Amino acid sequence: MKRIAVFGGIYNNYLALEAALHDAHRRDVDAIFCLGDLGAFGPHPDRVFPLLGGHQVRCVQGNYDNSVGNGLADCQCGYTDPRDNHFARLSYAYTFANTSQANRAWLRGLPPQLRVQLGQYRVLMCHGSPRRTNEFLWESTTSSAFLEHLFDSHQADVILATHTGIKWHRALAPDRHFVNVGVLGRPENDGRTNVWYAIISLSGGISVEFVPVDYDHERLAAEMRAENLPAEFVETVLTGWWTTCLEVLPAKERKRGRH
Amino acid sequence: MMVLPMVTLNHLDDLWFQVAGTWCNLTCQHCFISCSPHNRNFGFLDLATVERYLHESVALGVKEYYFTGGEPFLNRDMTAILERTLDFGPATVLTNGTVLQSAWLERLRTAESKSPYCLEFRVSMDGFTAKENDPVRGDGTFERILAGVRLLLEYGFLPILTVTRTRDEQEDAELFAGFVRLLKANGYANPRIKILPTLRIGAEAERCRGYADTERVTSEMLDGHDQNQLLCSHARMVTDRGVYVCPILIETPAARLGTTLGESLRPFAINQSACYTCWQYGALCANVDPEAQG
Ligand SMILES: [Fe+2]
To answer: Is-contact B272 B253, C-beta < 8 A?
Structure first.
């Protein structure tokens, strides 16, 4: 294995998923991985599953997948802001109601982690962090000392994660890499409508490339409206700015957004 | 024989500094360590001392640093301490917002913009009107805190307003909405607000009530309990008198675990009275609830 495509946070956005899969094949990857959170936010949850199956995408279980798969009462979102809570509930109820029994069972069986070898690099794939599915690792609130601890305690040279919704990469000496691969489900709060995934490849050392994915976001917005999903979610798809679930953003990441 | 409710440190995620000791320019009625202008029980930490612990923390893989008091900005090394900390990791400072100066914020804005890490300010308030806030925090503090918030905004910071719940839990939504209105009116377009439970020790024990004898954590109560919710499973507190298990128990002698971080990594029995609130609500001291998910 020399070149892999890795994405996370599909959030029901099957249109972005289709576009990303097409893009990854064009780049001649050896394998494709998904780091979890298939549901939430967007329309028609069941349209994601055949795409993942049809393209032999290997998946890690995200917190959303764990909730939907095990029929939990909510997404375990635990927001303290009442507005965030309100939207989190709507989003979860819709996704849960529209995910088939068979797909829920499939989500339930997903592994919390995957490991692959890229040349001499031990690559560990997880959802939030290697120690906890729902841990947020933001660029501005994760010290390098803590990353060193993760590399040491999990015997990995490269750690790939998602969950926060905003991509980042930090290289540590001598040759360790933490990569948040971003999400396909919604834009990353930068005023652009595209979403992101990552290509990790061997070329001498490890190279990390973030790939912007344009997709038919207007069609997604129209389908979200037709499904009566909140106007606030539609606005994010159309403008590229997050409108909900902002309380988890650290100040540095929050300042880059509009809301 | 009674089995003690022992909590093991999973990993030292959060390193706290009692950077202003118990010195505070305010005397809040609900303060859980009774800080005031007269309480010299714990003293300031200077830059050299903080640096020594920062260096020790690297090998332990600490993720974030927190600074509290008393009022941290009474410590004249405070700006330099935060500047230095941002070389190591993200920093959060818990301030009452009443003594902030432009020159310090100017330096801190520069330090944060050069660092990959975040500098968070948490400012405490107790009501969205002077009538509610001032009886708890002192006369005139409402306006002084708001002036501090406006100054932070002017320097590009987005303070998290922490509100100690002094009324019924059911009124949270109303409390939240009141703060949103107040802060928007003060130029904070998208205010960040966190509501905290009170701890019934220190001054708060006299204002409201202390803990009942039945409000103690037992080892049975730890069965099936998510220990990530307990600060002592992932944090330690540096003071001028040694390293303590958490920010809440610095006035409890049994909570002093050693002089170095290394010595402080051992398990702790959470049979102190305030441990009950931590067990009940969890995550009292983090910026974000560890259970919050996206
Ligand atoms: Fe997630």
So the answer is: no
**C-alpha B50 to ligand 1 mean position (Å):** 35
Nearest CA in chain A to B118: A140
Q: Looking at the DSSP assignment, which residues form a beta bridge with residue B237?
A: B16, B244
Contact B293 A247 (CB under 8 A): no
CB contact under 8 A, B292 and A81: no
In a domain, B41, yes or no: yes
With beta carbons less than 8 A apart as the criterion, state whether B138 and B27 touch. Answer: yes
Contact pairs from chain A to chain B, CB under 8 Å = 106
A72 vs B: CB within 8 A: no
pLDDT reported for residue B288: 46
The size of chain B, in residues, is 294
Owning domain of residue B27: 6-293
Can you tell me the ipTM of this complex?
Answer: 0.95
Tell me if B181 is assigned to some domain. Answer: yes
CB-CB contact of B198 with B33 (8 Å): no
The SS3 of residue B230 is coil
Does residue B125 have a pLDDT over 50? yes
**CA torsion sign, B240 to B243 to B248 to B252?**
negative
Rounded-to-integer distance, Cα B50 and Cα B19, Å? 8
Instruction: Tell me which residue of A91, A20, A87, A15 sits closest to A47, measured CA to CA.
Output: A15
Among chain A residues, CA nearest to B57 = A145
pTM (2 decimals)?
A: 0.94
Domains identified in chain A and CATH numbers: 3-255 (3.60.21.10)
In the reported structure, the alpha carbon of residue B105 is separated from the centroid of ligand 1 by a whole-number distance in angstroms of: 34
- Between CA A14 and CA A22, with CA A17 as vertex, the angle to 5 degrees is 130
Q: Does B171 lie at the interface with A, CB-CB under 8 angstroms?
A: no
pLDDT band at B289 (very low <50, low <70, confident <90, very high): very low
Would you call B27 an interface residue with chain A, using a CB distance cutoff of 8 Å? no
Flag whether B264 is in a domain. Answer: yes
Average predicted confidence (pLDDT) for chain B: 88
Q: Report how many domains make up chain B.
A: 1
Closest chain B residue by Cα to residue A40:
B294
> B1 in a domain, yes or no?
no
Q: Is the model's pLDDT at B199 over the cut of 70?
A: no
Residue B119, chain A, CB below 8 Å: the answer is yes
Q: Chain A: residue nearest B10 by CA?
A: A131
Per cent of chain A over pLDDT 90 is: 93
Residue B236 sits in a domain of what CATH number? 3.20.20.70
Query: Which of A37, A138, A141 has the highest number of chain B CBs within 10 A, making it the mutation to test binding with B?
Result: A141
